[in-house]
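Sample pair:
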Amino acid sequence: MVCLAACFWRWSLLQKGIVRYTFDSQDCINIRRHVWRCEKIVYNFKSMINNFVTIYGVMVMYKDEIDMFTLDKMRPIKILIVDSNINQKTDQLIIDQLKMEKLGQYVDSIITRAALDKSFEAIEQVFQKFRKEDQKRNDNFLAGLLSLDSYVKILDFINMNQSVLKARGLSNRNINFIWAIARKYSVGCKMISNGGYMLIFTLPHVMDYDIPLLKDELVFYNYRVIETTMSCDGVRIE
């Protein structure tokens, strides 16, 4: 929806005789506003984090729906978006999720909540480290990049999150299969949307030839794959 909104926004500028080859900050604000409006109409909710990340191409930490800070000076990270071939309507997925949450009280919820609390606490520590490093960086920020250990922790949290979803019955056979394939290549993988899409998070040191191999294996099993990059220019004109 972000790309569609960006296309219409540039088209509206062209109608006014304004030619843009790059979107400025005000353009991004307008695109963001239109995306939220469309999501509210189509889905009856708006995804603040997903849209912000897509438009600006950066990692962002939110607290109480307020963007605390962005990480726009990071090493670019390759990610894959995988279509798990699940064709379900958002409303039905929400209903199913509510049912599972109700059933969850009869599952080992104490252990699950304890694991989540521990995960969130650790994630908070990693992102606070990100924030401190981001504040210390100067124009020559490549010398101050975060250690690989911080990226590994994020990868572990992503896989842990998917493990919890699976344990709670909020996953399915296709998603579990994609997750199993991804873990063979030492990457992080989790469900990221009600539409059944999966995020695959790669580490900076992952060999370039590993990503095509992973993509080829997913395509072999008829899963559509989109490759993109985090810490990039965000939505742009090509």
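The radius of gyration is 19 Å.
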